[in-house]
Design a protein that fits this description.
- The protein has about 200 residues and is α/β, with parallel strands linked by helices.
- It is built from six helices and 14 strands.
- It has a single domain, classed as Rossmann fold.
- It is globular, with a radius of gyration of 15 Å.
- The two termini are about 15 Å apart.
């Protein structure tokens, strides 16, 4: 199995991600070393917490410049997806700028608390290697207060008081707003698809 570097952006509980990858036969390693990240066959950018804090940690280790220049397959997860875009209202924060768009906070409602937490159905928007074998109506596990609008890179959508981007893909950069490592068979399939990416 090709080597997979998980970027240590701080504040992320990556144990479930490591275990999910291990079940697929992949031993991933956590690192902040730009040289290690540049040389890895695959790179995962997870994230839990605030966008501004995560960006500050990435900048501190020189990774805010490294990540947008990566040429191997990259997978952003949850906050990691939001960091791949231009900015977030949370902070507010200037993010990595790989993709155009701003993460905005959900509007809370009596039947729709924020954060959006739990299982929700995916709607596949376009065919993509990342979603190979995933059908509309399958469930994924979300924990987030901010989301990206549907845009040209959106490959799956979800609804929570309005439609938002659940997964995106452009060139070698892919991302899911949900946690594939906590999303059962659907999430395992997506992680395997990422590991199989050319």
């Amino acid at each position: 199995m090709s080597d997979v570097a998980i970027i240590d952006s701080g504040g992320a509980n990556i144990a479930s991600l490591v275990f999910a990858l291990r079940r697929l036969g992949c031993e991933a390693y956590l690192t902040r070393d730009p040289r290690v990240i540049r040389s890895a066959s695959r790179v995962i950018l997870p994230g839990v917490g605030a966008a501004a804090d995560a960006m500050a940690r990435l900048a501190e280790h020189g990774l805010a410049r490294v990540i947008p220049a990566l040429r191997q397959p990259v997978l952003g997860i949850c906050l990691g997806m939001q960091l791949l875009f231009e900015s977030s209202e949370e902070g507010p924060a200037t993010c990595l700028g790989v993709l155009a768009g701003t993460a905005r906070r959900f509007a809370a409602a009596p039947d729709r608390p924020v954060p959006h937490m739990g299982w929700n159905q995916l709607e596949v928007a376009v065919k993509s290697p990342l979603l190979n074998g995933v059908e509309s109506g399958e469930y994924a596990y979300f924990v987030h207060s901010y989301a990206l609008p549907v845009g040209p890179e959106t490959i799956a959508r979800c609804d929570y008081g309005g439609t938002f981007a659940a997964a995106v893909s452009r060139a070698n950069f892919h991302a899911t707003q949900f946690h594939p490592e906590r999303s059962g068979k659907t999430g395992s399939r997506i992680l395997q698809n990422f590991l199989d990416a050319a």
